Please model this.
Amino acid sequence: MTIKTVGVVGTGTMGSGIAQTCAQNGFSVLLYDINDTIVQKALNGITKRLQILVGKGKITEKEFKESMDRIETCTELSEMKRCDLVIEAVPEKLNLKKEVFRKLDEICSEETILVTNTSSFSVTDIASVTNMPRRVAGLHFFNPAPLMPLVEVVKGIRTSKKIVNTLNQFVLSLRKEPVTCEDTPGFIVNRIARPFYNEALKIAGERLATMEQIDRIMKKAGNFKMGPFELQDLIGIDVNFSTTESVYQGFFGEGRFRPHYLQQRMLQSGKIGRKVGEGYFRYEN
Ligand SMILES: NC(=O)c1ccc[n+]([C@@H]2O[C@H](COP(=O)([O-])OP(=O)(O)OC[C@H]3O[C@@H](n4cnc5c(N)ncnc54)[C@H](O)[C@@H]3O)[C@@H](O)[C@H]2O)c1
Model:
């Protein structure tokens, strides 16, 4: 199974980063979003990021041009029929993802592999709306996709071994590290990360230490690049909370994954992190 053309559905933070990564590694890319303005914004973002790499001497002008030439955009989902692999990166809403997969299943040929970049939903559940769940899997990239080396290859209950192998090879050809995981709540990384945030929230909630202190201790003593609170501010407290909720539900209410009220209060207040200038901390610029 040879992958030459990759379709990316949803050109936001993740979709545009994934498209850039594929183009830089020799794949033809077809970017789809719901309108021209959004698609154009994504293309401009990719152009800017690649130009920065040229400026830093990390890629040549020729590589920049070749990567850009490999990217096409569209606003008709039916164009995805040209792709060997389609990566879905629409917002984390289960019904929306299912709707996209139902359509892709009809549009694409039987040879096309369909994957979701979901952070927290069941791949098996998403695949269940298609007629060919064996060609559906998860490819969980991390943010920022062009820089983060790990990609989780998620095997749904019905995903075929052949598809999993092809996807592992595909990730290697992006010069990234694939890790195959079973379709369990939060897969590997988001599951392991839950106690990092939850325990920190409990400690702050019990007023045993301030958020600044917890972040500082985790960085100095734990050698983490970022503490749990500044990292939530970066990811978005809304995004982080919904992942926690989803993992908690996925494990049928297991206590150690229970979301914390402090995080919910932040969400209710609208202080959801850097993207709005304030989360647990304030960001002047
Ligand atoms: N942001 C992260 O840190 C991160 C990390 C890993 C995985 N993810 C997952 O990646 C997916 C995308 O997240 P994101 O942060 O890039 O979201 P985003 O909001 O930045 O981008 C989503 C894009 O999807 C488009 N869209 C909306 N409805 C659509 C439709 N019907 N068809 C096609 N496109 C549509 C939007 O216009 C937008 O461009 C989610 O499943 C998320 O859980 C996000």
